[in-house]
Design a protein that fits this description.
Number of strands: 15
Shape: elongated
CATH topology of the largest domain: Rossmann fold
Number of domains: 2
Strand content: 15-25%
Helix content: 25-40%
CATH class of the largest domain: Alpha Beta
Oligomer: single chain
Strand order of the largest sheet: 11-5-4-12-13-14
CATH superfamily of the largest domain: von Willebrand factor, type A domain
Number of helices: 10
Length: 438
């Protein structure tokens, strides 16, 4: 009997040891599983964030970089974000950099970034379950055209032409226009305007109703006998307006509130053959041929106008920016082209307002600096985003141009044609909208 009890106790102790060992294995295995699964999900989460960042970077640069450079940018962006994570691991263990694949779809403005990473286990490896776990992530981002009214304010003065900077400005602006046009248009897209300068005289043809009463010439053919040097309506020929007097001269008040002084000169002489008067437009050459181009959705039209710019007049960037404000101001709704909804109201939730100022020469008059500063401050307060490019101006002008920009990050000091194009590309990237489809 005693021997039987001893054998039973021995068997019971052996079973307890076995149960304890089995339970310990389960507990340790559960802990190992919990720790490594947490690590795997942490890597998965970090990989997701890093892949999204890479997709945004790639989509933003879709039309600015070739395939190889785009892939390199996406890989660098992903690795930079992914490498910031710290994980519980054995000493010396590291999470290998993911394998990155970039698939651009230029026609749809999309880029897909795929990443595959390996997570080396810790406790599960000690228990000889498995060593590595593969995690994957794929993100598609779409590059979209910004929704904004955008005024290009370009230095087309005689000084800009003489310095050889006008042609590079025109080329860079056209490249900028073309780059944004390649992006996917979701709604209105970009509506473009062009304000060329120099001097304070501005060609606003054919809006003869904007000029002071009784200043428009009368008694001209076809109302009277004779011939003209221009074809068709004189309002479509070359003429300008000057600066208004008083407060209206530096405000965005529309012409219905304050009319503009007319700059137009007509001469006449009798034709020796017919004896009839021949009328000629002899307006001062300071009145440029190129008109202000109001807001339009046609990139062909705006690019053609940029290409046609010539260097005329003394630099007057203050007046130019004032006219950019008038191009974008809702006080001028329906004034430019009869569209009662254009320009849109300030702070419109569907359409922003942007101006890009390019200055390549110093103002001829000190008063222009004051007008520029006051106008830029007013535009910024009304929610207009201002980018400013200073192309080799003097240090005094550079300070004024820099102050015009919405922030230090919106200002670019360029010293070469290449830097000028890079500045325009940077602005295009700032404006570009990136979304995740679906």
């Amino acid at each position: 009997m005693v021997r039987s009890l001893q054998r039973f106790r021995s068997a019971e102790e052996g079973a307890a040891v076995l149960i304890f060992a089995l339970g310990l294995f389960i507990v340790i295995g559960g802990m190992a599983f919990a720790i490594d699964v947490s690590r795997i999900y942490a890597v998965k989460s970090r990989l997701s964030v890093a892949t999204e960042a890479a997709a945004v970077a790639a989509a933003t640069n879709l039309h600015f970089l070739d395939g190889d450079a785009l892939g390199q940018l996406a890989t660098q962006t992903l690795n930079a974000n992914f490498g910031q994570m710290n994980l519980l691991a054995f000493k010396g263990d590291t999470v290998a950099q993911p394998v990155v694949t970039v698939t651009p779809d230029v026609s749809n403005g999309e880029v897909t970034v795929s990443a595959e990473g390996q997570v080396t286990t810790t406790l599960l490896r000690m228990l000889n379950f498995f060593d590595d776990v593969t995690v994957t992530e794929a993100v598609t981002a779409r590059q979209q055209m910004p929704e904004t009214e955008l005024a290009l304010v370009l230095d087309a003065s005689a000084a800009s032409k003489a310095s050889g900077r006008l042609e590079p400005i025109k080329a860079a602006a056209q490249t900028f226009i073309a780059a944004l046009e390649l992006e996917v248009r979701q709604a209105s897209g970009v509506k473009w305007a062009l304000v060329p300068f120099g001097n304070s005289l501005v060609n606003v043809a054919p809006h003869q109703d904007w000029v002071e009463a009784a200043s428009w010439p009368v008694n001209l053919p076809p109302d009277v006998p004779g011939t003209t040097s221009w074809t068709g309506d004189l309002a479509e020929d070359r003429w300008c307006v000057g600066a208004r007097s008083g407060a209206a001269g530096s405000s965005d008040a529309p012409p219905a509130s304050d009319l503009f002084p007319l700059v137009l000169e007509i001469s006449s002489e009798n034709d020796p053959v017919t004896g009839l008067p021949h009328f000629t437009n002899v307006t001062t050459p300071d009145c440029r041929n190129e008109r202000i181009q109001p807001l339009t959705s046609s990139t062909v039209e705006i690019s053609t106008e940029v290409a046609a710019l010539t260097g005329v007049g003394d630099t007057a960037s203050g007046r130019a920016m004032l006219w950019a404000e008038r191009v974008l101001s809702p006080l001028w709704q329906g004034v430019w082209d009869g569209d009662a909804g254009s320009p849109v109201a300030y702070n419109d939730p569907t359409l922003g307002k942007t101006a890009v100022l390019v200055v390549a020469s110093d103002n001829a008059e000190a008063g222009e600096d004051t007008i520029l500063g006051d106008t830029c401050a007013r535009m910024t307060s009304n929610g207009i985003t201002l980018y400013a490019i200073d192309y080799l101006t003097s240090s005094a002008t550079a300070d004024i141009v820099k102050a015009c920009a919405s922030s230090a990050g919106h200002y670019f000091r360029v010293t070469s044609d290449t830097e000028l194009i890079d500045a325009f590309f940077s602005i295009a990237k700032f404006l570009t909208v990136v979304q995740f489809p679906g």
